[in-house]
Design a protein that fits this description.
With 270 residues, the protein is mostly beta strands. The protein is 1% helix and 48% strand. The strands form five sheets. Strands 4, 6, 7, 10, 11 and 12 form a six-stranded mixed beta sheet that branches. Strands 16, 17, 19, 20 and 21 form a five-stranded antiparallel beta sheet that branches.
């Protein structure tokens, strides 16, 4: 994924490719002497993206700079990346606009930025593909308004990690209802997750899912057994009816997919 946003000049936001001019065209300026710290993307929580809708999250960060460097002379923002170190050649997810900063002293800025995640095809922005779900490293970029090439940019790596995950959904249905005590209940369901390549949701195959029961009047679910999803994400198992209560399926999640639990389905046992 190429960098799709923060890249600025004094005249306004530019694409990174616009900064990549031949070195002979203009003498490079020094990269801004700033450092980034306290970077938090989505308050430290995983970013969960559905099959088609854009998701925008907030990132906060601190910039430390020399007192002699004007805060208005450069723009900055957090970047998610993969690879050894953040650079113009990294696989990157960034925001559409630079962050906004407030000076708390002559050397410290507290900043906020937005990062957009798009699973849908767009002619103007990069899009998420299924293979990009999982853990991303967090870095940041500062761009002086006088920048004429990538050599003028300040990249900083290893500022944290964040998961970007494919949204999951889970259902549960226990039948028959009502049922006689001691008789067999069949509990079906399905585990699906967002497919960013097709902009639809599809079954999540071969995943362990817990069947859980909560007795009527109780407050907690207990695990009855573990069932694996089929090639289409379907779930089906049987239990013996013993008491009124709620049955649900619960999925613990993976690196690429968040945990999810189905709504409990109440069964009246006669």
């Amino acid at each position: 994924m190429r960098i799709r946003a923060l890249l600025v000049a004094s005249s306004g936001a530019l694409a990174l490719s616009a900064l990549a001019v031949p070195a002979a065209q203009a003498a490079p300026t020094a990269a801004p002497n700033v450092t980034f710290s306290n970077v938090k993307v989505n308050a430290g929580k995983a970013v969960v993206v559905g099959p088609s809708a854009k998701v925008t999250v907030t990132a906060t960060y601190t910039v430390t700079k020399p007192a002699s460097l004007s805060a208005s002379s450069f723009d900055s923002g957090p970047m998610l990346y993969r690879g050894t170190a953040l650079s113009e050649n990294s696989e990157i997810i960034s925001g559409d606009d630079p962050g906004t900063c407030k000076a708390v002293s002559t050397t410290v800025l507290n900043c906020t930025a937005k990062i957009q995640f798009r699973p849908t095809v767009s002619s103007d922005f990069d899009d998420l593909a299924n293979g990009q779900a999982g853990a991303w490293k967090v870095g940041a970029l500062a761009v002086p308004h006088s920048a004429t090439s990538e050599a003028d940019l300040k990249w900083q790596s290893n500022l944290g990690t964040v998961k970007v995950q494919r949204q999951a959904q889970l259902t549960a249905d226990a039948t028959p209802e009502p049922v006689k005590k001691g008789k067999t209940l069949t509990v079906t369901g399905k585990l699906t997750r967002a497919n960013w390549d097709t902009n639809k949701s599809g079954g999540y195959a071969a995943q362990p899912v817990k069947l859980q029961f909560r007795k009527k009047g109780g407050t907690t679910y207990t695990t009855v057994k573990t069932v694996k999803t089929s090639s289409t994400g379907a779930l089906k198992t049987t239990v013996t009816a013993s008491a009124d209560g709620y049955y649900r399926y619960s999925f613990a999640g993976t690196t690429t997919t968040p945990a999810v639990s189905a709504a409990g389905d109440f069964v009246d046992v006669k």
